[in-house]
Amino acid sequence: MMIKFDTSNATPFLPQDWLTSRMDALESGRAKLENGSGLGGEYTGWVHLPRDYDKEEFARIQAAAERIRKDSQALVVIGIGGSYLGARAVVELVNSPNFNLTHKDGPDIYFAGNGLSADAMLEVIDLIKDKDWSINVISKSGTTTEPAVAFRIFKNLLEEKYGKEEARKRIYATTDAKKGALKGLADAEGYEEFVVPDAVGGRYSVLTAVGLLPIACAGVDIVELMAGAREAMDALSVPGAENPAWQYAAARHALYTAGKKVEILVGYEPSFRFFGEWWKQLFGETEGKDGKALFPASVEFTADLHSMGQYIQQGERLMLETVVRFEKSRGSIAIPHDPDNVDGLNFLAGKDLSFVAEQAMRGTLLAHVDGGVPNLMVTAPGRDARSVGALIYFFEYACGLSGYLLEINPFDQPGVEAYKNNMYALLGKPGYEDKKAELEARLS
Ligand code: PA5
To answer: Is 139 in the pocket of ligand 1 (CB under 6 A)?
Structure first.
């Protein structure tokens, strides 16, 4: 298994039986995931996806990405939550957070419809207006307000630029196979369609067309991405104490049981930031219900050591850290010698920056452990597509197991509806009249 997991820096905080006492529950969780027999089992289609994905659709995704890479200088990817974060996480982690400034070929990728900021949308419009561009609209339900509003706006702009007929050929819709507003529109307009499988919820959908089309448009090798996920799937389906997903699920559950309330995902690469956002949705929506679960947070070190580092070292002792480390940097950069040595750094002259980063990580880890913060460590070989595919699957599988250890339904998200209903009412959506009156009275 290319993903490694290490609990040695959490040992002082873990009871001796942290794993052995959970083996039965883990085996039960494994069976529920593998057979779809637990709570929410109808949404476990992601478990065997790296093996059972739709090969015909996969080829269409590759062909559509090739077309977009040839005929578009920009791609506007419209979606929110599970229909957004995975694609952005992979595009940035495998490439760079500065993807649009650094890619050599293919389109710039702009993410839209993931909020309601007029200023953010105007900026994207300004950036694409003189380019050839296409849209990938992604919404399982087709009714989510943010992407639906953005799609209206960008579709109008595309039709103004190219005319209705040509615009249709530049819109790619990823949505439900059978139902929903976007499905109806895509059928009527003849957009090329891709499917969000019924059995895969938004936060587990990055390895479906939801993530794969934008990821492929960014030039990431999606065959490698799926191969990495497949390798992880095969390895993690094997039961036992050696299984790193079992260990991770058990360790974080044991620390939660021992009183920890927050899990901070730590990355040392700026390109990892959106992977952290994806991870927060994965664990937050999977586990955060029935008044339970670790609150998932994320930081980027060493930058955040100069801000959040203070709290982590000495604030309320409520957190654990899960550090994600990549074995290989892509390049090297040596620290130069300075004859004046004004900054006193000549002891580092000739050393590679990655060596300095590694020592910063090791030192931080020990300092935080000394400060009462258990550290779990996940190691991936690199930021290549194969490693990232494996990392995605590792966290998905561990998350599903974690949900069953907590005895909740890992695959629903009833809490997300509360804000939506209030927003619909305040916006005057038909059918919400009573609720609108009640909310307006409370707000006045
Ligand atoms: O995980 C989820 O279910 C959510 O984050 C959804 O993905 C998000 O609300 C977008 O939904 P939809 O794809 O239906 O527009």
So the answer is: yes
Ligand 1 atom at minimal distance to the Cα of residue 144? 15
The verdict on the CB of residue 83 being under 6 Å from ligand 1 is yes
Summarised one tens digit per residue, pLDDT across range 165-222 is 999 999 999 999 999 999 999 999 999 999 999 999 999 999 999 999 999 999 999 9
Peptide linkage before 44 cis (omega within 30 of 0): no
Active site residues: 285, 306, 420
* Residue to mutate (ligand 1; options 46, 144, 185, 277; most atoms within 8 A of CB): 144
Asked if residues 253 and 22 have their Cβ atoms less than 8 Å apart, the reply is yes
Statement: the pTM of the whole predicted model exceeds 0.70: yes
Helix (H, G, I), strand (E, B) or coil at 77: strand
- Set out the domains of the chain in order of their start, with CATH numbers: 4-37+226-405 (3.40.50.10490), 49-220 (3.40.50.10490)
- Tell which one of 43, 83, 183 to mutate to probe ligand 1, the residue whose CB is within 8 A of the most ligand atoms: 83
DSSP strand pairing (4-6 vs 375-380): antiparallel
Report CA 81 to chain centroid distance, whole Å. Answer: 9
For ligand 1, say whether the CB of 80 is within 6 Å of any of its atoms.
Answer: yes
The dihedrals phi and psi of 266, each to the nearest 5 degrees, come to -110, 125
pLDDT tens, position by position, 301-344: 999 999 999 999 999 999 999 999 999 889 999 999 999 999 99
